[in-house]
Amino acid sequence: MPRPKKNEAVRKAMCERFGVAIRELGMTPTQIAKALGYANATTIAKVLKGESFVDVERLQKLSELTTATGKPIDMNWLILGKEAQR
pTM higher than 0.70 for the full model? Predict the structure, then answer.
């Protein structure tokens, strides 16, 4: 049975939100790459172009980072595009 095709629109929307997130963190692509454990910023560049997305382990590392005001990135928003309900 063939694998279902991935939804490109969903990936692109997530990539756009990823770009917003790293701007909110005040980090450059090189800085975020290092913080997430990448050897260089190549993967981050692909994410920012909407070509790929980071893996689950890197998302977990991203969730541990905070903005200058101490606010973490809302993973619900990053992945689903919705604010977390509390």
Answer: yes
